[in-house]
Amino acid sequence: MIDVYTAMALDGDSPVPLYFQIQSCLMKAIDNGTLMPGNKLPSERELAAKLAVNRLTVRQAMSELVNEGFLTRKRGLGTFVARPKVEQGLSKLTSFTEDMRKRGFRPAARLIALEVQGADKKMAQSLRIGLGEAVIVIERLRLADEEPMALEISHLPAGRFPAFLTLRTEVSQGSLYDIVRDRYNVTLCAAAETLEAKVASAREAALLEMPSGMPVLLRERVTFDQNGIPVEYARSLYRSDRYKFMVEVGQ
Ligand code: GLP
């Protein structure tokens, strides 16, 4: 365990609350690399003893840093310095595989479901097909260096992708966008997206390996081919502690 803590000079007479002083010291140690991603912090009890402060003060300092995504709690293991969030641009049409490779992560997928369903209203509207028409549903947990990053459900109009269900191995191992391009000769050209926050359901939280009730970022995408025909309707749930989204704005 790293001992940056005994070096923390807390000032009990300062008008700055002690929890805030602890937070600032921890942030400084994270910023200057004294504390590195993955480093374990002492327990609240240990840290309170080291700093000669109340345990609740330490808890408040740590909880805020957990909420802000600088620290992460792993059940039964303790509190760790979090990895910096992935900054994801929203202005280019890219695939998960591309995005992760660009950052030096190893992308992977765990296939949860691959099946054909009748289109519900939302799928039919997004894909511009009739209600009840066949839709290929692909649910995957997306991983980067084995760590869950997002839970994605893609819907494709089945008529356009014959024999898709036979591609199970490819879908579970590779990029959906590569399959669509290489196997079906479909070029994805543009997408319309929305981004909103929601609370992870118990199932989603379990799959994403995060505490249930944590917020996730829901990104919905309708992807179009070169003729402006919708090819994919996707719902991606991103871990809010691993992602921030970036948009460039001009005049
Ligand atoms: C992103 C998009 C999804 C899309 C996926 C394809 O994550 N949000 O809508 O389905 O990329 O990624 P890949 O080609 O790696 O399967």
How would you characterize this protein structure?
With 251 residues, the chain is α+β, with helices and mostly antiparallel strands. It folds into 2 domains: 5-81, Winged helix-like DNA-binding domain superfamily/Winged helix DNA-binding domain (Arc Repressor Mutant, subunit A); 86-246, 3-Layer(aba) Sandwich (Chorismate lyase). The protein has helices spanning 18-31, 44-51, 55-67, 96-102, 121-127, 168-173, 176-184, 202-208; strands at residues 71-74, 78-81, 86-89, 107-118, 134-144, 147-157, 188-199, 215-225, 230-239, 243-246. Helix 1 crosses helix 3 (55-67) and helix 2 crosses helix 3. It is elongated and about 70 Å long. It starts with 17 loop residues before the first helix and ends in a 5-residue tail after the last strand. The structure holds 2-amino-2-deoxy-6-O-phosphono-alpha-D-glucopyranose. 2-amino-2-deoxy-6-O-phosphono-alpha-D-glucopyranose binds at residues 95-97, 152, 154, 175-177, 219, 221, 234, 236.
Overall radius of gyration: 22 Å
Shape estimate: elongated
User: How many domain modules?
Assistant: 2
User: How far apart, in Å, are the first and last alpha carbons?
Assistant: 50 Å
**Mean pLDDT over all positions:** 93
Number of helices: 8
CATH superfamily of the largest domain: Chorismate lyase-like
Strand order of the largest sheet: 4-5-6-9-8-7
The CATH first-level class of the largest domain comes to Alpha Beta
- Please name the CATH topology of the largest domain: Chorismate lyase
CATH architectural category of the largest domain: 3-Layer(aba) Sandwich
Q: How much helix, percentage-wise, in residues?
A: 25-40%
